[in-house]
Amino acid sequence: MLDNLTQRLAKVMKTLRGEARLTEENIADALREVRMALLEADVALPVVKEFIAAVKEKALGEEVIASLTPGQALVGVVHGELTRLMGAAHEGLNLATQPPAVVLMAGLQGAGKTTTVGKLGKYLKENLKKKVLVVSCDVYRPAAIQQLQTVAEQAGVEFFPSTTAEKPEAIALAAVDWARRHYCDVVLVDTAGRLAVDAAMMAEIKALHGALNPIETLFVVDAMLGQDAVNTARAFNETLPLTGVVLTKLDGDARGGAALSVRHVTGKPIKFSGVGEKLSGLEAFHPERMASRILGMGDVLSLIEEAKKGLDEEKAMAFAKKLKSGKGFDLNDFKEQIGQMRKMGGMAALMDKMPAQIAQAAGQLPAGTEDKMIRRVEGIINSMTPAERAKPELIKASRKRRIAMGAGVQVQEVNRLLNQFEQTQKMMKQFTKGGIGKLMRGMKGMLPGMGR
Amino acid sequence: MFGFLKKKGGEAVSPPADPAATTETPEQSLSWRERLFGGLARTRAQLGGKLKTIFSRGKVDDELLEELETLLLTSDVGLEATQHLLDALKARAKKDKLETPEAIQEALSQALAELLAPLEQPLSVDGHQPYVIMIAGVNGAGKTTSIGKLAKYFQSQGKSVLLAAGDTFRAAAREQLMTWGERNNVTVIAQDGGDPAAVVFDAISAAKARSIDVVLADTAGRLPTQLHLMEEIAKVRRVIQKADASAPHEVLLVLDANIGQNALAQVKAFDKSIHVTGLVLTKLDGTAKGGVIAAIARQCPKPIRFIGVGEGIDDLRPFVARDFVDAIFA
Fold it and tell me: pLDDT per residue over A30-88, tens digit each?
């Protein structure tokens, strides 16, 4: 089901090889595939329809460049259009007002508003050096105020206490007043989750907005949302003058078509994306990555960024030099790489960002095996002498037995590791010639049990 | 026109298909049915109007099928299940010569009811004491709120209930459960921070000592991609088994009806690590139609134990397939 769109289109487009242009006839089937891919990613149907129409218009007459198949050319158009629709570059928060700048959060129940307030607070405090006050106007859900208090403590921002006996409007106004007198730069106002069809609750937040006149009104939306995202977003957008969207729970495996639906309906920029429960998990939103994700093409760019973050600059340079000089990639490097991979959040986080085909193959392994396997591999390498690590070809039967005993594994596993290493070595040679595309294909061979 | 279906559906299926309702007084059952209809009113308003225009064509042709496809897809039914329902309708149309709008509608609602009927398996908490129910789900699905409502539900059946605050991660999750406990006058077993498995173990021991009927064990929300957290919840399950070899007697996965096709991935992933035995579908009172349960019925069937159609404490009730289908179509 999670077939990469490129692959699926390739199937449809097989018949078209050699045609120089995309025409109405030859892309009809392909557009149906695009439609299915978008629907599977939970993009709302009305949005899908409009989108397909736009893509069709753009694609017609598009020349197929010699090196591309028609399928690839079409995917290019689709991807470009998706990216364009989801907004250009990242837009930050607008805080240009007389302090305190008030930011109002709104959204459905369980969208992640309170967590997002904590993350935003931490971001504003640490990255923009703002003095932040947070306040909860959720007087309905049990312990919602306490939740924000705890989150505020973790984020290291000021918390304005409130009680369930008060009116949301009164709480918020008191908080803004307090912020003014204590020279806070930003007030983040958390609200109760509400359904768009709940007239009373929508009127409440509208009144709250009127009283506060916030400079930013953020709509917090769950990336997993289904077809109904369209209705919800429309209702919130009609009630409140939204200024931006925060997409949460993007660390899950949802394709996140809701992002496109919400963006399309509200026309408001997606300002941030929430990943993970830690308060540091707030990232700038990247339209082109989201486009790849919706199409099931994997988030290779994020992967590279992550890799950069986890990588030790100097070590990487030394490694690159070693590769360039043509000197062999040895088991020490192999171990080093495994260590780096761990730093990047283990195989799970890595696979998450891989194109669907690879992630799917890896998904066949039971949960957690990858990380367990990596620990074993490390154990085996640790049982080798430095000489063996530098020159793996030294390792013959008797040494294998010793290593296996040392690592507490069977000899077969040592063999398997050595085989894998050999493959990786080959891959590395390709890498020096071929670049990342080849590396990705090579990755498939690295894990046992994965489709070759 | 829709009255026709409603009447027919009601007559033909209602009496035998209501096993949960038989334990209640007829009055209660009626009000629940009304509430279900009320909660799904928006779904119906949206869907009903469109269905009327679609079915008024009076014959099953390509255009009707395409419009129906659109409708099912916008209800989160998903591609695979939509195809299945349309195929079923086509097959019926060939066999029975469906020529009136009513007949087409009846055929479709029957196909849907047939698809969902196997999922209708009410939860019975008899047979074990304590009956241990473990609750899991992604962040913000409505686990803790559902536990509050379930506690009330079981109490109204004359059972004694104990809650275990197994969400030791999220800020103030414990306090949230405690508040539910106070409202229902139910004991909540909690620890300051600590290990979720330990809290649940304590709760089961306490339930044994106090001969409590039902233990509801809350867990922290987690996304299936967080493997370490999936391992943690698998451990909670193992520890429950240690406390009582026959437990957990029920593992409920809470799903938000607003969620799209990712719900399937959630069911599969949680099933893999903790063997889900039933589902709770929450937040059906929005404009979401919960069509994803049709996809679940096709691709990873699990009994739907409860559905929630409102914020009130009584708004979480057993799932009855025919009622659900009627509430959507009628």
Answer: 788 888 888 888 888 889 999 898 888 888 776 666 556 666 677 778 888 888 888 76
pLDDT tens-place string over residues A77-112: 888 888 888 876 667 888 888 889 999 999 999 899
Among B192, B222, B231, B287, most A C-beta atoms within 10 A, so best to mutate, is B287
Of A227, A253, A368, the CB nearest to B260: A227
Q: What are the distances in angstroms from CA A339 to CA A106, A321, A378, A421? A: 41, 19, 9, 15
* Dihedral over Cα of A84, A89, A90, A93: its sign: negative
Q: Which residues of B touch A254 (CB under 8 A)?
A: 259-260, 262, 265
Interface mutation vs chain A, best among B40, B261, B268, most A CBs within 10 Å: B261
Residue showing tokens 């007697």: B249
For the segment A317-342, the average pLDDT, to the nearest whole number, is: 67
Contact A227 B73 (CB under 8 A): yes
Q: Exposure string (b/e) for A86-101, b if CB count within 10 Å is 16 or more?
A: bbeeebebebeeeebb
pTM of the predicted protein model = 0.75
State ipTM.
Answer: 0.79
Contact assignment for A226 to B292 by CB distance below 8 Å: yes
Domain identity same for A392 and A413: yes
If we measure between CA atoms, which residue out of A211, A163, A223, A221 comes closest to residue A187? Answer: A211
For CA atoms B194, B195, B201, B207, give the dihedral sign: positive
- Interface contact A3, partner B, CB < 8 A: no
Chain B residues within an 8 Å CB radius of A224 = 138, 256, 259-260, 262
| Same domain assignment for residues A33 and A111 | no
The reply to whether A72 and A115 lie within a common domain is no
Looking at every residue in chain B, the average pLDDT score rounds to 83
Min distance B308 CA to chain A CA atoms (Å): 13
Q: Is A379 on the interface with B (CB under 8 A)?
A: no
The architecture that CATH gives domain B1-14+31-330 is 3-Layer(aba) Sandwich (3.40)
Q: A48: distance to nearest CA of chain B, Å?
A: 11
| Beta pairing, strands B316-318 & B304-308 | antiparallel
Give residue A198's pLDDT band: very low, low, confident or very high (50, 70, 90): confident
Domain-by-domain residue ranges, chain B? 1-14+31-330
Mean of pLDDT values over B89-97: 84
Domain, as residue range, for A404: 298-451
Q: Are A220 and A192 in contact (CB under 8 A)?
A: no
pLDDT > 70? residue A310: no
By the CB < 8 Å criterion, does A289 face chain B? no
Nearest to B286 among A39, A40, A228 (CB): A228
- Supply the CATH number for residue A20's domain: 1.20.120.140
Out of B79, B174, B261, name the one closest to residue A226 (CB): B261
Contact at 8 Å (CB) between A12 and A51? Answer: no
Chain A residues with CB under 8 Å of B76 CB are 42, 226-228
Res A317: pLDDT: 65
Q: Scanning the structure block, which residue is given the tokens 């689709």?
A: A78
